[in-house]
Amino acid sequence: MDFLVLFIGYIMSFVIGSILYYFRDSQTLNTGVVGYIKRTLGQICISLAPKVLIKWLNDTANAVLTSSNPFMQIMFCLMVLLGHSILVIDVLPYLFVYDPDGDHITLPIIFCFANFFFMHLSCYPDPGEITSKNQKYFMSLYKSDGVLYHPDAFCKTCKIVRPPRSKHCSTCKKCVHRFDHHCVWTNNCVAGFNQRWFILYLLSVCIMCGNGTYMTYKCLCLIVRSKKLMDTQYIDPNTREVHPITLYILIQHLFMEYPHTMFLLFALPSVIILLGSLAAYHIYLVTTNQTTNERYKLYDIVQKSKLDNKDPHIINDIQSMRPFNKGLWKNIQEVIFPRRQLNKLFHKRQR
Ligand SMILES: [Zn+2]
Ligand SMILES: [Zn+2]
């Protein structure tokens, strides 16, 4: 198969796979032509694959994604290790040879440590657990808006009245303050107390991958320059004619000669696009004082209102409601200093 077809196929399957995974709950992807294609492909895969394999995949995915376990954390660490191994084995030796005066070590080490530091803060400290002891403080933080949150919502598992903006996480098995979502990569909830660390974790992955992309690109440029690859020629296999090298042939040659380095050059920007857009989405949520959980809830309410044939103006009002918005600066402060408000309440009651 032609190299270009394989390459485009790889990029397309990565992009489509990512969209299907990240937007798996989206109405657009589950209805109409897209939904039909998705369902048909799913049925074809299921009918072709052995039943034992499907059962094993289902059980494994359920065990990994719906229970508290460190599997995805280990996977992330292995991916970071793989990326750095390629960097050390395939990229750094060339950088040291072709650019001996440059510092190629300090930044990757700083970025890697920063990433693990923010990952640790996203994974382990309390995201905002609500217990019967601290529930009264969380109760006074927000008022029920009557649409997204109703007063006296009771959690049967924790046996407490759930404060507005909190949710019971079925994976962590606890009610969590200002719940955003449960992240399988950190094996922890993203919520009131750790959303800031989660955003910094995402950004640190992007910066680490950005630096890796730059180092890989620089390495390949140095190889091309030092080996004078742009001055070479190639023989057309069909006509046997000799032509000056083109960019397409050069990329193909680099893929054959330096497959690991080329893999990094395309894989790292893909990670930046995925996690960078997730970080941008979270920054948008912070600035408007919303959570992912609230966005989903709002979406469901709007869909239900449309089915009930409610007035379009009312639907529009619901769609644009931001009941907890306090203005840009206060919204940001709420995420950067999540305990400030709680501490104030605590000290007030102590007096
Ligand atoms: Zn609960
Ligand atoms: Zn959770």
UniProtKB/TrEMBL annotation:
Its EC number is 2.3.1.225. Residues 151-297 form the Palmitoyltransferase DHHC domain. GO terms for cellular component: endoplasmic reticulum; Golgi apparatus; membrane. GO terms for biological process: protein targeting to membrane. Keywords: Acyltransferase, Membrane, Transferase, Transmembrane, Transmembrane helix. The chain crosses the membrane at residues 6-23, 74-98, 104-124, 198-217, 263-287. Pfam families: DHHC (PF01529). Its main location: membrane. It catalyses: L-cysteinyl-[protein] + hexadecanoyl-CoA = S-hexadecanoyl-L-cysteinyl-[protein] + CoA. It is found in: Membrane. The keyword Nuclease does not apply. It is a multi-pass membrane protein. It comes from the Eukaryota. Belongs to the DHHC palmitoyltransferase family. The DHHC domain is required for palmitoyltransferase activity. This is Palmitoyltransferase. It comes from Patella caerulea.
